[in-house]
Give the backbone structure.
Amino acid sequence: MPELHVHYLPHFVREHDLADATVVVIDQLRASSTVCHALAAGAQDVVPFLEVDAVLAAAGEYERDQVLLGGERGGERIDTFDLGNSPSEYTADVVFGKRVLFTTTNGTRAINHARLASRVLMGAAANLTAMCEAVASDKMVHLLCAGTNGHVSRDDLLVAGAIAHQLSQGEQFRLNEGAQATRGEWQELLSAARASGRSSSEQLAIELRDTPGGKNLLAIDHDEDLVACAQIDSKPVVPELDRDAGCLRLL
């Protein structure tokens, strides 16, 4: 039976344990959500980098109008960059046809941690169903939560639980302990949504406010990002890492 494993942080799993498997990197607030928005808006691709200096060095290899520099440190747009890490910034009129050179505090590091995997994809609420369909036939799937500044963050766990919930329908996947626990959290969210008469997206937006990542965004007045990131299936695309080209593209 295929297996589904959830890892609460990258440093909770060794890189070699992810080798030759499918890894879905989840940085719900906000890298995964932003990459989905960028590619859905027609960006050519998104190139992840660990460090700001690496982005600036890579930018020098292109004509300036061919690329956009995007990302954050401390949640805020980096000086001299074109874009931050808010999904709403990545609209078609801004990113269509452009290569996005991208670095974030947590998400791009999680991508790097999964570099030995056979497939690396980005998962978020925005592409929940499309992501589940993309990995449904794989034999070993790891959901790798990026966390917030080295700490477990419930925003990632909720999305991991949503994926586990969908993939465990019909008992097609065997779930590890982390997958079972996060699935339970997602099922509690669905129950709360039904009890209050809210949609699952509305309930998710509310619960994101109390997560470490959500609190950080509220502190820097990025409330609107919580609503944007909570819209389930709003961007039904599957960003997958093209290892040879070193970029995230549409599956």
